[in-house]
Design brief:
about 475 residues, mainly alpha, two-stranded antiparallel ribbon
Amino acid sequence: MLFGSVYPWAYGLMEMAVLLSFGLLLWQNPGFAFLGNNVGGWGVACLVGLIFMAGLQLIPMPGALVKFLAEPTYNLWKLGVLLPPSLPHPRSLIPLTLYPYATASVGILFLCYLLAFTMARTMAFRKKSPNSRPGAILYVIVATAVAVALVGIFQKGLSAKAIYGFFSPLHSSGFMGPYVNYNHFAGCLELALPLAVSLLGFALIPSARHGRSPGACWLLGGAVIVMLAALIMCGSRGGILSFATVAIAQLLLLFGLLSARRIKGATWVYLVLVVIIMGVAVHITDWSNTLPRFQKIMRQDPHQNIRWKLFKDVAAMGNRLPLTGSGLGTFAVAYPSFKTLNRQGLFSHAHNDYLEILAEMGWPGLLMFLGFASWVLWRGGRVIFMALTLRTRGDPALVQRALLISGSMGGVISLLLHGLTDFNLRIPANALTWFVLCGVTVGLSDLGKPRIRKQAVSRDRPEPEA
């Protein structure tokens, strides 16, 4: 709600909140093992390695070693381009990053993301039973996204010239809701919409512990309508296409999950309700500004697109610094030295999360990030596959758990898809939520192996001989 937490004072408050929360976790659980069996994994090792690499970039090294590892970085330091006027000559020891302050600042952010991931995973892992209701953290994410969506809708309706009526971003005129940029507003909604859809399905499924929750169904249905309407209204092409792709896959997956015999009665009701909700949201939304943006894609030559030219520059930049990159968080400082794009102005980000990581962290950093994301998707996908293959004889709690995982993993995938054309993972509010959803996905997959009903087991056993 603090403008996407893109300003130092805003993400500073966020960092303090995460550090205090993690300190509370350690105080309540003195024996908590940060990288032990309960929260470890090769994906966590990849994320820790990414943060360690950022720290390594800050260490001053001999010039000869920096020249061997990253010659363009050495040349820029040698020319004195990066030194203030009071230091006309390069220092004998040179760091691998072109802007140490930015690397340290973004590195601390990634450390907080790791802690937030760990806390979200631990909260899910420590549930006493997979039959319990969804954790409050899931409803908090959805409720916050609804609040963000309502702010955006009211601002559109009132033709507001400032965020909250008083704050006008100096470097962006395309704000939406509390976010400085409408694409990042869309990123917030992409994270929460799949989660709201899965929670709606969970509320419709009766279980041994609780029956259907009509009140929750109405509230979650309204939440989906509000968020989907705001997503379409903001006009973010990448956001709409990413969510549409995830929504189609999620609905097909939910149809498979809800087709088990014990919950078949809720299947068609749920699917019809979701279709009606989405239809209402689309119908009440003004498409006059959104459709022309999609039509522009069809008419434009992709090779003439400004982002396509930027991507080519950034890819070349990454190939010139393949081992170390220019330093985490240094894209705005490093790119002008590699720029061939014939356009004035400052490019603060690469508009592609993957290419930006490649340019700043080299191939080792990109592979570690992809390793972490793949691990999260593998952990969640494993439970969903298990629920689909065992749905006729497995524990119904497994279906409910897979249903929740489909929502958290849907938000993770949606932002990964949007990351091909934008930089939501460099917006602290969205990045924090993304890592929390990663933790929820892995945490729900940590709840143990599914239990098989005794009837099914006995039915599969051979009859004893007389």
